[in-house]
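Dear H.,

Thanks for agreeing to be a second pair of eyes. The structure we're designing against is below in token form, covering all 98 positions.
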């Protein structure tokens, strides 16, 4: 089970970058709010996570814009895969939404 997901919001045009973690418990969705993001387009939200035993990882990203009202809703589809062994690549399958 993945209890915590790391998140990052970045905009390469404005050099804005913010990151943190979101706790996930007893479900397959994660929801959280981030304040202080300047109005504009070109943002990318990235979520990643790893099970406590390190056997599975998940990752996904989505682009979004922040409106003049300062509100944006972002849906990220996560891909779930076995964590890579040294020298190998992960195998992914479509997971839940975050």
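And this is the sequence the design step returned. I haven't edited it by hand at all.
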């Amino acid at each position: 089970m993945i209890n915590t997901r790391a998140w990052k919001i970045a905009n390469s045009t404005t050099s804005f970058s913010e990151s943190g973690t979101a706790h996930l418990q007893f479900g397959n969705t994660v929801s959280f709010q981030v304040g202080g993001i300047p109005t504009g387009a070109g943002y990318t939200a990235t979520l990643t996570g790893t099970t406590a035993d390190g056997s599975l990882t998940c990752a996904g990203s989505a682009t979004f814009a922040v409106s003049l009202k300062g509100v944006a809703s972002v849906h990220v589809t996560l891909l779930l895969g076995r964590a890579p062994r040294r020298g190998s690549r992960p195998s992914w399958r479509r997971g839940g939404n975050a």
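Two observations from my side: The chain has a mean pLDDT of 81. The beta strands are 4-11, 16-23, 40-50, 56-66, 77-82, 91-97.

Warmly,
E.
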